[in-house]
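Chapter review: from sequence to fold.
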Amino acid sequence: MTVTFDPIRYKNTTRAQWEDAAAAWHRWGPTIEDWLGEATALMLDATDVRTGSTVLDVAAGAGGQTLAAARRVGPAGHVLATDISPAILAHAASEAAAAGLTNVRTRELDGERLDVDAAAFDAVISRLGLIYLPDQAGALAAQYRALRPGGRVGAIVYSTAERNAFFAAPVSIIRRRASLPPPAAGQPGPFSLGGQGVLAELLRRTGFRDVGTQTVGAPLRMPTAAECVRFERESFGALHQMLAGLAPEDREAAWQEIGAELERFEGPSGFTGPCELIVAWGVK
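The token string follows.
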């Protein structure tokens, strides 16, 4: 049976899943920043985010990278955090307010339809967001339009499934149990831009110059595999989306299998989930 990908239905489901997972993703914020902090700093360096910069954050989520950018740009700059989920943006706004960062605004926007002024930003960033957009080329074209000449784009994506077992193992188990076909070429998903040179070539085709990439090892460290399962079960919208067609008891069985599989990454110092990220950048 051929399954036709429906981007509108996919985005509606994605929005609903992140509305549900928003509070949990925010609650796990310190873990997420420990995990993604090194790659985030590299992305901000590569996009030359500095005092006075204007920054657009696409698919910002709960805003860990938004706040990091806001601290860099200071009162003379500003950061606009955008996402398809208003619930998760509310957490970004509350965290910015709690940190005393008055240079952050949030706005509900589809990452493929960035309704912002052209040439208005010095930098456009996206952390683990571009991979989930159905029209990735269109999304990058919108980012290109938003940048001033000489502005920089930066993105963080997962590399290949083989290098990201902490996430790939649950995806594989759920896909098998839910009888989901593998994603076709060009469809969104966690590893859709992880192949050698794929994201760099997409940036060049969009028109960016001086494109570069760097691979970053980002193991997810937690006390136990069970804690990793709790993290993913509570806050990974992509997994919730894949599980949606299963009955409750079948979902539970899938999580039990995921827990057993992830136990192989436990050791004397706790759980270390294999993860590898790619940071990519380019100049308009």
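Two observations follow directly from the output. Strands lie at 54-57, 78-83, 104-108, 121-127, 147-158, 209-217, 220-222, 266-267, 270-273, 276-283. The chain has a mean pLDDT of 95.
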